[in-house]
Amino acid sequence: MTPSSTLSLSGERFTAVYSLSGTAAEVEARASAICLEQTVEFPEALIPNQAIRTQIVGAIAEIEPSARFSSSDESPNSFEVSIRYPVETAGRELTQLLNVLFGNVALQPGVRLQRIELPPALLQHYQGPRFGISGLRQRLGITDRPLLCTALKPMGLSPAELADMAYRLALGGIDLIKDDHGLSDQIFCPFDERVSRCAEAVSRANQQTGRTSLYLPNITAPADELDARAERARERGAGGLLLCPGLTGLDSLRRLAADERLGLPILSHPALLGGLSLGPHIGIAHGLLFGTLTRLAGADATIFPSYGGRFAFTKAECQEIANAARAPMNGLAPIWPVPAGGMRLEQVPELVRFYGADSLLLIGGDLHASGDLSARCAAFRSLVEPGSQTDSSGNAWGDL
Amino acid sequence: MTPSSTLSLSGERFTAVYSLSGTAAEVEARASAICLEQTVEFPEALIPNQAIRTQIVGAIAEIEPSARFSSSDESPNSFEVSIRYPVETAGRELTQLLNVLFGNVALQPGVRLQRIELPPALLQHYQGPRFGISGLRQRLGITDRPLLCTALKPMGLSPAELADMAYRLALGGIDLIKDDHGLSDQIFCPFDERVSRCAEAVSRANQQTGRTSLYLPNITAPADELDARAERARERGAGGLLLCPGLTGLDSLRRLAADERLGLPILSHPALLGGLSLGPHIGIAHGLLFGTLTRLAGADATIFPSYGGRFAFTKAECQEIANAARAPMNGLAPIWPVPAGGMRLEQVPELVRFYGADSLLLIGGDLHASGDLSARCAAFRSLVEPGSQTDSSGNAWGDL
Description:
The structure is a homodimer. Chain A is an alpha/beta fold. Chain A has two domains: 111 residues, Alpha-Beta Plaits (2-Layer Sandwich), CATH 3.30.70.150; 268 residues, Ribulose bisphosphate carboxylase, large subunit, C-terminal domain (TIM Barrel). Chain A has 15 helices and twelve strands. In chain A, strands 2-3-1-4 form a four-stranded antiparallel β-sheet. A four-stranded parallel β-sheet of chain A has the order 7-6-5-12. The longest helix of chain A is centred in the middle third of the chain and has 19 residues. In chain A, 58% of the residues are buried. The C terminus of chain A is likely disordered. At the A-B interface, helix 2, helix 3, helix 6, helix 9 and helix 10 of A face helix 2, helix 3, helix 6, helix 9 and helix 10 of B.
């Protein structure tokens, strides 16, 4: 093994952009500290040789003012700092990529990870989404309209009751019928029975309607049961999978997406993980967390709490997520933004205008608001079908 | 399967305590919303039957003012809200327990999860730490003093160079010699070669000194490689394992700890996960995240950034972590608090006074500060050995 003084890495680097506040001098010092913290985690003066200093340590590429609170150079302002890390530090592993990007600095207030740029030399290790926007459209046979999604709930219903609900939702024309993310393998609703019954119910409805609705069970599970649950879901006729990568680890999502034998679309739910997005001066930016990273890990669709519901994401944050989900990313398939979190039928025209046709609209409780589930499903569907009011207004389905 | 209207759960509940701010009326409304959000995720009025309402939905047990900003009932104050959830909602799964405790509300500002109380009916599904404080003392043959820990670094050194460093650290009397958490399986330092060389080096030193130092490789890895890496570490003579559960998922820690065949102490590193602790009005409290939950998952020792270093945790937050790591917890073994993050030799007496004898002191860069590693190790060791200055002062090693 070559000694470190003769290290000879490729020179390829990936970029992390952080936002930092302070005076120009403070921010520069802080940026230098991040370059060390995320790689050698060692005082600069003690680094044993020049090769490590130049080839391993992160390098500041740029420091740009992003907001100016004061005209004085000695007063605090906000800056975007671009740091370039050697691709070899992240190896071929998502766990280690996250570690270099934000592992230790996640614990420091005043630093937010805004976005990343990954060169082909690093992206080659990632397969990304297996279906994405076009793959899921193909599977459903729907070429242009937004997709409809809902959740089976409330927790406490039996598998038979949930299956009955799934049947009526599929008859009503909902494209993706997912488990509520609170359904796992509880004694009052065991996983195997729920999946068998719900998959059968949706399949029966599909035979009647001639359409394709998919049932997506929640396979979020302990580390030693996750594979088995995914496999049992497939065997029992699931049309896709729901996973909460914040509960299982983001790399579990990558592993499932990469599993060719499984071959099912994966819908990512933000439980717990989304806690890292709450800022403004800490954490991971919305677009990066729910868009870029979730997509890199291989989700085909990413659920997030939209503006206008029970959560507090702003329009700008939601737009950032939708952009990161669908923007070009060196060949990785674009994925579905799934605005959710208390959306109501009356908001659908506005949501379609805002998120465009390549979006997956998730409405839960509000479908049950009137007691007549069929009528609510029909209304939901009519709002996104060609010829709907939104469509004829001329500005529907426009991309962001 | 019984219909949900005849649900008959045990009535056993676990408790989550959240801190919320607002007027008394606002906080009560918010607390009711959390009871729904974390279970049925459904509007109260639409819940289909009374059994679900009374047996599935969280119940407010108590709302207590925790800090009073204003004497008026209409002005915002801070409250601690205790919510009791049925044990069956969390099943027997750590992933789902985290989901009920904080899954969706993690995405809402203004709510912080402060602490939890888990009854035996729920704890029965968790084995907890295999070694903990007494198990690790036994393995090392050290009955009373604090333990010494350091990290092999900087990233960029070759396996042979790291092994040489490990040898000198073990000769110098460091008890636990861990990989830096940035070492994974990089091309400049492959996992297998590093582990073989470092384990051999520490074993050779042990033969010379007659003492027991342990080498703990970082096995943080992609989901489909984690088991193999742990197993290869064991085969190659590792004395313990380092894992970053924020990168792999907290349940991967539980799975490794539960693996009897593996049987190695596990040191938990806070990379990424710790981002959830940054508050004050969001996230998960320090003691709960680094103490209770990490211990529940089965870590034997929990690394966290101590006050007095490169990070910004306060003394109170550090004390909260050390307390949660070691306080009685229904039979789960107490674990080692591992204050870290830029600790220096000169701080050791103070750290021992603050954290007590049942603590594991992690000093990295500062051991290399003078160039004479042996002398620094000897100094580190002398500061915690019986007869040291701290000890003779009479107030050393006192528990918190």
